[in-house]
């Protein structure tokens, strides 16, 4: 009986050690599988965008002395507003095209007495030439007249002998 107990304990100890080492091997295989899938050619990898889109044209519209509302109109709502520094707005934008490295852009706007005093970050404003909030009234958009062409639904009804005009 004593030998049977010793064999039984050895059996369970060996089984437990194989089980524990097997879990670590499975864990290392589990992290290798996504890396192998990243290299496969026909897998769709979506673009991941996060934060506020920052463009040079938006930065060019910012001027010292603008109010917070004017800056918010141009740049949008800031991504980060520090609770302890309410006069600093941070705009962060990151883009990761499918399967490529992530790029990140950052702009900080500093205000004093609700007026913009300076801009720091990845973009610099270009020379001021015109009022950024000025509305361009010279743009004319022409809309063509309706030619009476009907859509596929009306065409199908006509083919079936049903008049859509009635």
Q: What do these coordinates show?
A:
The chain is of the alpha+beta class and 166 residues long. The chain is built from four helices and five strands; from the N terminus they run αβααββββα. Strands 1, 2, 3, 4 and 5 form a five-stranded antiparallel β-sheet that branches. Strand 3 and strand 4 form a beta hairpin. The longest helix has 37 residues, at 2-38.
Distance between the termini: 97 Å
What global shape is seen? Answer: flat
Spell out the helices and strands N to C.
Answer: HEHHEEEEH
| SS content category | alpha+beta
Helix content: 25-40%
Number of helices, counting only DSSP H or I runs of 4 residues or more = 4
Query: How much of the residues is beta strand, in percent?
Result: 15-25%
The overall strand count is: 5
For the largest beta-sheet, the strand count, sense and barrel status come to: 5 strands, antiparallel
* pLDDT < 50 runs, ≥5 residues: none
Mean pLDDT, to the nearest integer, reads 77
Give a brief description.
With 166 residues, the protein is α+β, with helices and mostly antiparallel strands. Helix content is 36%, strand content 19%.
Features:
166 residues; alpha+beta; five-stranded antiparallel beta sheet; 4 helices
Indicate the topology:
Elements: H1 2-38, E1 48-51, H2 56-61, H3 68-75, E2 80-81, E3 88-96, E4 103-112, E5 115-121, H4 152-159
Antiparallel strand pairs: 1-3, 2-3, 3-4, 4-5
């Amino acid at each position: 009986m004593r030998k049977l107990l010793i064999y039984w304990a050895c059996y369970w100890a060996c089984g437990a050690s194989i089980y524990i080492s097997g879990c670590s091997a499975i864990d290392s295989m589990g992290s290798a599988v996504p890396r192998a899938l990243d290299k496969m050619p026909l897998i769709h990898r979506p673009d991941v965008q996060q934060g506020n889109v920052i463009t040079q044209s938006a930065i060019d519209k910012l001027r010292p002395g603008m109010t917070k509302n004017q800056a918010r109109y141009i740049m949008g709502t800031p991504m980060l507003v520090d609770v302890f520094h309410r006069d600093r707005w941070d705009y962060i934008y990151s883009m990761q095209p499918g399967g490529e490295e992530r790029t990140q852009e950052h702009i900080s706007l500093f205000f004093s007495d609700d007026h913009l005093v300076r801009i720091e970050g990845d973009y610099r404003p270009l020379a001021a030439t015109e009022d950024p909030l000025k509305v361009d009234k010279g743009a004319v958009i022409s809309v063509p007249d309706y030619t009476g062409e009907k859509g596929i639904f009306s065409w199908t009804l006509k083919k079936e002998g049903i008049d859509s005009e009635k």
